[in-house]
User: What shape does this take?
Amino acid sequence: MSLLDLITGSTGNQVAEQVENKFGISKNQIIALLVVAAPLVISYLKKKSENTEEADKLNATLDKHHDGSILNNPAQALERESEGNSILDHIFGGNKANVENQLSANTGISMDKIGPVLATLAPVIMGYIGQQKQASNVNSGGGLGDLLGGILGGSAQEAQASNNPLSDILGSVIGGATQSSGGGLGDILGSVLGGGNQQQQSQQGGLGGLLGSIFGK
Assistant: This one.
C-alpha cells in the first residue's frame, strides 16, 4: 500500500467519515489534512531517526504499538485520540503548537479542532509506517531512515504520475520536505507549509493555492 493509497483508499475515507461525524468538519478537509500531515510526520520521524537512540526508540514503539492493524479497523482512530496526542507531543515537541497553527491556516480547520483531529489521524499514520516496516523486513532502528525516505520518495513519484488533485498537494508537501532534508525540524515545517504565509503560497501556486483550488478559499 502506498501513501496515496492510504489517503485516498478505504482506510483514509473511513477515518475521514468518522472524524467528520465527531467533529463536524468536511470530509474533504480531513482528507486534505491527512495528505499534508502524513508526509510531514514521516519527514519529522526521518529527521529524528538520524539519531541512533531516537531510531531505536521509534523501532521499539512501532513493534509494540503500531503493527498496522488499525488500517483494517479504522474505528480504532477515534478510540486512540489520547495516544495520538502523545505521539504528536513526542514527534513535534515544542514545535507542536506552530505545526497546528500552520495546518489550521492551510486547511481551514479551526484551531480548537485541528489538535484533536490531528491526534486522531496520528495513530493511523504510525500504523501505516508500522505496516511498511513489517513489509520491508526492517528489524532495527538502523533501517528506519531508509524506510521513511523510501516512503516519501515512492509517494512523490506516484503523485507525479497521478491526475488526482490530492496528488498535487502530496507532491508539493513531499517536495518541500525533501528540499529541507539537510535542515532541522523547523526547516521541514517551513519548507512544507511555507511558514504559514498562505497568501504568498496561493500567489505562487504553492500548497495554499492547491488547497484553495479544492475548497474555494
